């Protein structure tokens, strides 16, 4: 079995490989350890003693820098686990000190000249003025609009982008951006660093984000989490269906619907978020309350 397989090689240092009798030579006369007879090789690593065949002859760095060998392992799940871990580390590191924030979701396809774009921009602005950072998916459409409103109001405009088969990149109004490979890591960041969501008209991506929030509230994985639906004409049908079918059939409770605040007014959306958080004992950020 090799050192790699036993794990004994990690952290080893051939400079510490020495003969039990002779002290470690320190200068140009240093003997390559491979030339020390096998039976005389000895190494101490912390509380561990290694002798003979257990003494490895290369350092961790040497093995790291040795580019020879197979590279297929970068396409294996154990390696992906490391990349997933890295996304959480990067996300937590970038957002841990963000302060109070609200997630704003909505269609990637909302056109710049559409009234919903103006509404998203207004929401971004009012949230920033209220003292919230604004977190979006970092893409085009409603996301871009909310980032624009937040950034132009001098707020913290955050975009959590996602790698897609087609390149879209972070929109130009994202002032703090992270690009994720994995949807689930990105979704964790939305929920972990937002105190509530404002959801504008959108498609399956937006519905996914909305229903994830509702599921987490229903299962009490998150508490104190206001969710506002902006656009009554767009959302009323969904609310009616949830009430008439899901609730009527006993698949949800009335309280699951109570979490949803439906409005057409961006100022009302932001007031609702502030009021709900205050009612739940969360300190209000130091910005202005929308008139
Ligand atoms: C469809 C197009 C670009 C997609 N680019 C996206 N970039 C970032 N985030 C996205 C993108 N598409 C979807 N999302 C996420 O889902 C929500 C919007 O999805 P919907 O289906 O459009 O409602 C959004 O909140 C993002 O988090 C080309 O225009």
From TrEMBL:
Q: Which GO terms describe its biological process?
A: cytokinin biosynthetic process
- Tagged with keyword Amino-acid biosynthesis: no
- SUPFAM superfamilies per UniProt: MCP/YpsA-like
Which InterPro entries does the UniProt entry name for this protein? LOG, LOG_fam, LOG_family_nucleotidases
- On the tree of life, the source organism's domain of life is Bacteria
Give UniProt keywords alphabetically.
Cytokinin biosynthesis, Hydrolase
Enzyme kind, highest EC tier? hydrolase
The answer to whether keyword Hydrolase applies is: yes
Positions of region (Disordered)? 1-35
GO terms (molecular function) for this protein are: hydrolase activity
User: Which is a Gene Ontology cellular component entry for this protein?
Assistant: cytosol
Catalyzed reactions: 9-ribosyl-trans-zeatin 5'-phosphate + H2O = trans-zeatin + D-ribose 5-phosphate; N(6)-(dimethylallyl)adenosine 5'-phosphate + H2O = N(6)-dimethylallyladenine + D-ribose 5-phosphate
The Enzyme Commission number assigned here is: 3.2.2.n1
Q: Which Gene3D superfamilies does its entry note?
A: 3.40.50.450
Which family, according to the similarity comment?
Belongs to the LOG family.
**PANTHER family per the record?**
CYTOKININ RIBOSIDE 5'-MONOPHOSPHATE PHOSPHORIBOHYDROLASE (PTHR43393)
Q: What protein name applies here?
A: Cytokinin riboside 5'-monophosphate phosphoribohydrolase
What organism is listed for this UniProt entry?
Nocardioides zeae
């Amino acid at each position: 079995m090799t050192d790699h397989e036993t794990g004994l090689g990690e952290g080893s240092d051939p400079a510490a490989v020495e003969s039990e009798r002779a002290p470690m030579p320190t200068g140009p006369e240093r003997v390559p350890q491979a030339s020390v007879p096998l039976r005389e090789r000895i190494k101490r690593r912390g509380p561990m003693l290694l002798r003979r065949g257990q003494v490895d002859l290369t350092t961790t760095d040497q093995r790291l820098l040795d580019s020879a060998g197979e590279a297929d392992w970068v396409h294996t799940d154990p390696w992906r686990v490391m990349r997933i871990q890295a996304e959480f580390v990067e996300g937590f590191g970038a957002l841990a000190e963000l302060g109070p924030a609200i997630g704003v979701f909505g269609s990637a396809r909302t056109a710049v000249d559409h009234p919903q774009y103006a509404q998203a921009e207004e929401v971004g602005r009012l949230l920033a003025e209220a003292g919230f950072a604004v977190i979006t998916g970092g893409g085009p459409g409603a996301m871009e609009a909310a980032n624009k409103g937040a950034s132009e109001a001098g707020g913290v405009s955050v975009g959590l982008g996602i790698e897609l088969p087609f390149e879209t990149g972070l929109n130009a109004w994202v002032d703090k951006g992270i690009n994720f490979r994995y949807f689930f890591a990105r979704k964790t960041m939305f929920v972990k660093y937002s105190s509530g969501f404002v959801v504008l008209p959108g498609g399956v991506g937006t519905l996914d984000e909305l229903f994830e929030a509702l599921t987490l509230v229903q299962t009490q994985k998150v508490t104190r989490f206001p969710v506002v639906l902006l656009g009554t004409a767009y959302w009323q049908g969904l609310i009616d269906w949830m009430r008439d079918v899901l609730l009527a059939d006993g698949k949800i409770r009335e309280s699951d619907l109570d979490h949803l605040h439906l409005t057409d007014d961006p100022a009302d959306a932001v007031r609702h978020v502030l009021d709900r958080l205050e009612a739940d004992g969360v300190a209000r950020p130091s910005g202005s309350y929308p008139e």
